[in-house]
Amino acid sequence: MSQTTIGVIGGSGLYEIEELTDINEVTLDTPFGAPSDSYVTGMLDGVKMVFLPRHGKGHRLLPSEVPYRANIHGMKQLGVQRIISVSAVGSMREAIAPGHIVIPDQFFDRTQGKRASTFFGNGVVAHVQFADPICRELARVLGDAARKVGAEVHRGGTYICIEGPNFSTRAESFIYRSWGVDVIGMTNIPEARLAREAEICYATVALATDYDCWHDAHDDVSVDAILAIIRQNVATARNIIKQAAHVLSQPPTCACGEALKYAIMTDPARIPAQTRKDLDLLIGHHLPQS
C-alpha cells in the first residue's frame, strides 16, 4: 500500500517545518503561473511532506495576491493527497480565546471577486460539490492530534473569509457575529475550493490570535498583539502536524479524490486543446483517451 504525501500550507508565522529531514527545495511552473514560493519537500518521522509558505518567504504577498491556483496545482504536481492549511484567524465567539485551535467545517465567502476561484473556464465547465468543504476524515485526525498535544481545540464551526488586507470595521465585526460565524480570516477561500477541484483532501488548523474588534473587554486586533499569540500558536501547530502525520500517511478513504467524477459538464470533444493540456493533471483521468 503506497504512502500518502501530506502537504502543509503555512500561514502567518509558519514559514517552515523545522523537524523535516531529507529536505529538498523544488521550484515549479504551473499553467496558472508561479506559486507563492518554492516548495520544501522532506520527511517528518518517516512520512512524506511538502511545505509551502502561503505568503512567500518573508511574508511578501497580500491575501488577494496569493497565487492560489498555482499553489494547489503545484501540490498536485508533487503528488500531495492531503493538505493541512495552517491559518491565523480572529475569534468571533467568547469561548474561542486567543491561543485556542479551531478545526472549522464550513466557510462563508466574503471576498470581493478579486481572486481566481476555479481552475475551470476557457472552454471547459465543471460544477464541483462543495456543501461540505472540509474533508471530515482529515479534520477528525487533526482534531484528535490537537487534543493529544494538549491544545484547547474546538471542532467544527464556520470560517468567514474576507478580502483584507484591512481588519474588519466594528460594524462588520458585529454583523458577522450576528450571522453565527466562529472565526474570521483572509485566505482559506478560494484555497479550499481549489483543493476540492484538484481532488485533494483539505482541512484547516485555525490559530485564534485575537477577538477581532467586537469584544469590549479586549483590545482591538493589532499586528503586534497577533504576533505574540502567533509565536505560541505556531509551536502548537507544528506539534499537531507531527502528531497527525503517521495516521495521515495511510491512503484516504474519503470521497475527496473523486470530486470531479461527475462534475465535468463539457463534451470532451469540444474542450479546446490548450485548455485540455493545461488541465490534464486535474481532469485527464476523467476524460476519454484520444
Brief summary:
The protein is α/β, with parallel strands linked by helices and 290 residues long. The protein has helices at 68-77, 136-148, 170-178, 188-197, 223-248, 273-278, 280-283, and strands spanning 5-10, 21-26, 39-44, 47-53, 80-91, 101-103, 106-110, 153-155, 158-162, 183-185, 201-210.
If you had to describe this structure to a student in words, what would you say it looks like?
There is one protein chain. With 290 residues, this protein is of the alpha/beta class. The chain contains seven helices and eleven strands. Strands 1, 2, 3, 4, 5, 6, 7, 8, 9, 10 and 11 form an eleven-stranded mixed beta sheet that branches. Strand 9, helix 3 and strand 10 form a beta-alpha-beta unit. Helix 2 packs across helix 5. The relative contact order is 0.20. The mean pLDDT is 93.
